[in-house]
Design brief:
By secondary structure, this protein is of the alpha/beta class. It folds into three domains: 10-347, Alpha-Beta Barrel (TIM Barrel), CATH 3.20.20.70; 376-469 and 628-637 and 665-670, Rossmann fold (3-Layer(aba) Sandwich), CATH 3.40.50; 472-518 and 553-624, FAD/NAD(P)-binding domain, CATH 3.50.50. Helix content is 31%, strand content 17%. It has 22 helices and 27 strands. An eight-stranded parallel barrel has the order 3-4-5-8-9-10-11-12, surrounded by seven helices. The longest helix has 20 residues, at 134-153. The model has no long low-confidence stretch (mean pLDDT 95). Keywords: Flavoprotein, FMN, Iron, Iron-sulfur, Metal-binding, Oxidoreductase.
Amino acid sequence: MSFPHLLEPLDLGFTQLKNRVLMGSMHTGLEEEKGGFEKLAKFYQERAAGGVGLIVTGGISPNLRGRLAPNACQLSFPWQVAKHKVVTSAVHEAGGKICMQILHAGRYGYHPFSQAPSKIKSPITPFTPSAMSARQVRSTIKDYATTAALAKKAGYDGVEVMGSEGYLINQFICARTNKRNDEWGGEFSQRAKFPVEIVKAIRERVGSDFIIVFRLSMLDLVDNGSSWEEVVQLAKWLESAGVTIINTGIGWHEARVPTIATSVPRGAFAWVTERLKQEVSVPLIATNRINTPEIGEQIISSGQADMVSMARPFLADAEFVNKAAAGESQLINTCIGCNQACLDHTFALKRATCLVNPRACYETELNFVPATSKKRIAVMGAGPAGMAFSIYAASRGHQVVLFEAKDEVGGQFNLARKIPGKEEFDETIRYFTEQMKLNKVELRLNTRLDASVVRDEPFDEVVIAAGVVPRAIDLPGFDSPKVVNYQQVLNGEVEVGERVALIGAGGIGFDMAHYLGEQESTTLKPDTWLKQWGIDKAYGERGGLTTPQPEHTSRKIYLLQRKTSKMGKGLGKTTGWIHRAVAKHHDVEMLNGVSYQKFDELGLHIKVGEEAQVLEVDNVVLCAGQESNRSLVDEMKNTGLPVHLIGGVDVAAELDAKRAIRQGAELAASI
């Protein structure tokens, strides 16, 4: 399939972008590591060589108090330019263009020196900012201009001014965080003066031949956010001030609406960019949950935007654009929006990477060079770990035979993709399948690896990736056919009734609550999804919010856990709140501190503290973890061949595809 609109050049007057694809800003954590800029240069260089039209870096602060964290990166002095040149030179050598994002955290700063328009604490950080004086406001505007000038000196092709997601500029724009009564507060024209003056100051310092992208919050998704009229007016003022391109920002970080998680429909917010496109003449960029060239082509060809921004998809596959241009989109390693290795790492101050591509941000450390001694390797289990090992080992020249006892590949991903909102997991199975064909992995379905196979055929080493089995619970009545495990339900082996108790409130428990509570995936019905979360396409209220209208289920669902801690405490840092919110949408009753007694014709007998209860349920679904499927391990070790364990068969404490795929990749690189 060709993508003529996505791949069409964009003329900016003084320069031209080779296509309409922007690699959106992502903070990787390399910015703060020792020697991190050399690693960052390789990371961006591979994406530039992969064909992207314009890259935007992670956020760089214009001054000390604007840093996201105490050790976060800043560009304010000439001596800081040199390390940035390492990045820009690498990108330009690969034929790419790159802008540096300037980001002042404002009240989102995770340190006691944070500043904001007013002394109002953010709900997502522990520190209360100090209110900026008028002198400090003017000084900060100068700092933005200085940083932009230094960025130009460092070789950047432009800058992106971060004016959305609830950071400092957004805090000035909105009355919810701007309570000033001087020239920088009050009426909208005064609140908007701060971003407009920043753009004017930057343009004056950098001249006319430098890209200025402004990340404009088009949909705040918070109470007392900007009105649509204010968004339009600010866009027009920014155009007059000298911006080259306007990028779309969706939602403040404190908003209680998902904006980038896998359950968000693809291209769910392109409509707001389309709406602004009628009001300004500078190019506009659509963003959020755009992860395939097909979605990008549709958005641009239909006139919703002039460019599309994809950030995490370039973690998943550096060659995204080249593969699309070659008509090989089936070979793209698609971002599944899981957040587990990227945003969850970033907010935990770890180096970002990618669940489906463990090489992301490890380009100088994890590589698959041709093997000096080529081996014939037997692999058992075609789940994420087994498939990852197989394709990477085969790419090095090893002869890999992959055994799978079932009639399909995918392992636990075949269960995950059945959960509403996790349909993207299909893409990873498709990618691995295509890569196995490309790298000539011999796949034997419906075949269990055992010692006789190893004795009959010449193998040099064995890799066991046979995954996990659900953990059983030995209590009176739990041998009833009405007590089932999550795999039986998701595989369609059993049907459950209208009243269900789920034992275990980890990721599997919350997934099962969603599966049983949502008959049809709202992720596949964008307008229904927008109503579910209270997003108003008519934009009648500030922030674009309206009353949420979740679809309620007739099924009564109990979600139970032994621990007295918060339900879902171990869920993803950036997605756990979404799972809890969805459970509330489905009226799931959540109980912690539960001890289980028995199951009989009356239902599930439990104690909460010292209080005995009987939950009158038709079925109990066990979601209380899993155990390693180690049935093959001793048998294989007795063959005398080197045996390696990866994935769930190695550690089954949690279903952790991030660890499983990385284990497979690292073993393949070293074997």
